[in-house]
Design brief:
Layout lengths: L8 H8 L5 H11 L10 E4 L2 E2 L9 E2 L2 E5 L4 E7 L6 H14 L14 E7 L11 E4 L14 E7 L13 H11 L8 H4 L2 H10 L6 H27 L22 H13 L4 H8 L3 H8 L1
Helix pairs in contact: 1-6, 7-8, 7-9, 8-9, 9-10
């Protein structure tokens, strides 16, 4: 069996925000969010596209957006690359999701709390060992909480080191699923004992996808490979001023401009990362023969 890599935005939405995913999303959110003793029993999955209501505000996308039975709203974003300004984008999306609830003329008391859940395939907080971190507005000295209207939660996948045999909680199982499902060739017995995780495996099974869906997933993988190759090349050549390890200056659009030598160097990097010749060809625009020459 082969499964979608749910770390891509297409696959993440397919598993967690499709019409059949309501119970999957409820199970996942109850597993990773501290609702202080209560559990959400229902939710409504809504369009994750955040349309600005104020002229001049930026449009933005999150991967999943839902209104919970406890009157809170959650927005979820899966992020593979640590691009420059990502931390601010998380805050921006949370603040906009909160502020745009209020139609003109409505009272501020109608605003409902926002939880921004961000899953990253990179480490954001090196000084913290926890896989899941929770941030709220609090007074610095007395640690008094300033309401719970906006909460930021981060799940850093590289910090999760447990293997299949060490998974004891539903939280562990969901994080393991997100981090590893794209590399699995079978459904682990101790994961599929849970009905919602079993269902998530079924949705992620590539055998159940249409040709169009498989092509869309492959396009996302090609785009990510190209980004990673460009980042590695830029770091090696020092072409990005002021760059820190793992961060990109500005927005990468997936197009490599300049001399062919640069594209060849990127192809070498992708090959060194384990990509096969055909995938490197698709990602860089080089022919199969040119990639073979690069590999030799």
């Amino acid at each position: 069996m082969q499964f979608l890599d749910v770390k891509t935005d297409f696959a993440f939405k397919k598993v967690f925000s499709s019409d059949e995913s309501k119970d999957i999303l409820i199970s996942f959110l109850n597993a990773v969010i501290d609702f202080e003793g209560e559990k959400i029993v229902d939710l409504t999955i809504v369009d994750p596209y955040q349309i600005p209501l104020i002229k001049g505000m930026k449009d933005s996308y999150v991967d999943v957006k839902a209104r919970l039975s406890n009157q809170k709203n959650v927005i979820i974003e899966m992020q593979i690359l640590n691009v420059e300004g990502f931390e601010k984008r998380v805050l921006y999306n949370a603040a906009k999701a909160y502020s745009t609830q209020l139609p003109k003329g409505e009272d501020f008391t109608t605003l409902e709390p926002i939880i921004a859940l961000t899953i990253t395939d990179f480490v954001m907080f090196e000084e913290i060992e926890n896989v899941i971190t929770y941030f709220k507005l609090i007074e610095k000295k007395a640690l008094i909480q300033y309401k719970d209207e906006i909460e930021l939660i981060f799940i850093e996948l590289p910090k999760f080191k447990k293997d299949e045999n060490e998974l004891t909680t539903i939280t562990d199982k969901w994080i393991y699923f997100i981090k590893n499902v794209g590399n699995l060739e079978y459904t682990p017995k101790n994961l599929v004992k849970d009905a919602q995780i079993k269902k998530a495996f079924e949705i992620a099974n590539t055998a159940n996808l249409s040709k169009k869906e498989l092509e869309e997933q492959e396009k996302r993988h090609d785009f990510i490979r190209l980004q990673k190759g460009w980042i590695a090349f830029a770091l090696k050549q020092g072409t990005i001023q002021g760059i820190k390890q793992g961060k990109i200056e500005g927005k990468i659009e997936g197009k490599i401009e300049g001399k062919k030598e640069k594209v060849i160097e990127i192809a070498k990097t992708l090959l060194s990362l384990g990509d096969d010749i055909e995938r490197v060809s698709k990602a860089t625009g080089l022919t199969i023969e040119e990639v073979r020459d690069v590999k030799v």
